[in-house]
Each structure stands twice: as structure tokens, then as C-alpha cells.
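Data availability (excerpt). The following record was deposited with the supplementary files.
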Amino acid sequence: MAGYADAPRPVRAGLVIVDALRGTPQRVVVLQFNPDSLERSLAPQVAGADGSGDRTEALRLKGPAVETWKFTAELDATDQLEVPAPNGIHPQLAALELLAQPTSSQLRANQALASVGTLEITPVEAPLTLFTWGGKRILPVRLTELTITEEAFDIDLNPIRATVAIGLRVLTVNDLPAGHRGAELYLAHLVQQERLVGTAADGRLSALGLGGGL
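Predicted structure:
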């Protein structure tokens, strides 16, 4: 009889930090547990949304919808006792927190520029971040919200259990330069969505109580 060892392992959701030029992963953040739910919001970018457009623009789209994702992840060092964790879940939390921060070397470089009288310092560019939820959802994103609730600690006050509320905004071709790796990944995601629509069974007008024509 097949044992539990033969059961396929579930695919984990996570974040991948990618070098936008080379396309090589710099860091992979795997969620320890897949969130129980995802909150997704899409705001269509329509022409004349402010009421200033004429009637010929009622069905015109200016570009991709503004899409946001929100979910809550759980981290628990006690669930992986076979893995030494002298720092608790500090490393996992640090990996998430660094998504919202420039690196120390980047900040030191900016400080050096300011100290020699540089008047305008270009904002630091973050690496490309991808959110993955299975093979059909690989999206370029920007972190918009990170709320960490630490719930248990070891004797050295290292956090050993926490919930993390994460908010992400999908980056589209309107957000990134033409030819950027993230823009190409967004277009690939859009093509995947269009293919999925093609596999859906067509509904019938009769199911809506309508006749053969409109």
C-alpha cells in the first residue's frame, strides 16, 4: 500500500527576487504555509472615468486594470523542528522586510553622494519582484503593505510564530519600460489568462431567459 511519502508535495506560493537584466533569481521567499484565502481587486482603467469624456469613450480602456492582491501568511518555527532555528523566524521576516527597503550599500552610496554636494540623487531601483501562485500565476509586483504580528517568542525573545499581512500591486506594461523583463512577464500572464478563457464552456442565452438574439 502506498504511504504518505508517495503523495505529491503541494506547490508553495512565494516571492522571487530577480535580476531584471540577467533574469537570474537573487532570492526566493517560499511561504511556509499557503494562505487560506486571497483577496484580489481589479480596477479597470476606462476613458472618461472622471466624467469629462464624451459618449464615444464609454467602452474604451486606457490600459491594463490596476490589480492588487492581499493575503495573510503564517510563519511558525515550531512546525519545522528538524531544521535548526537559533534565530527563530527572524530570517524569514527579514527576507520579507527587505522587499520594502533599499540595501545598506545603496543607502551608504547615497550618503556618500550627498556628502560631496550632489544636489539630485536618483531614487534607488529595487530588484524585480515576482509573486508566484502555481504555474499559471507568475506576476511582477510591488510590495504595498507589510504588517507583521509576532505572536510567540523563545527564551531569547526571537520570534517563533507570526502572521504576516501582505499587500501587492501587479506591475503592468503601463508601469514598466518597454522591453523590461517584468513587462514581458506581465504580457505572458495576460496571454495565459486569454488561453484559460478559451477553455471555458460557452454559456447559452436561454440560461439567462433570453431568446436567440439581442
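Summary of structural features: The mean pLDDT is 86.
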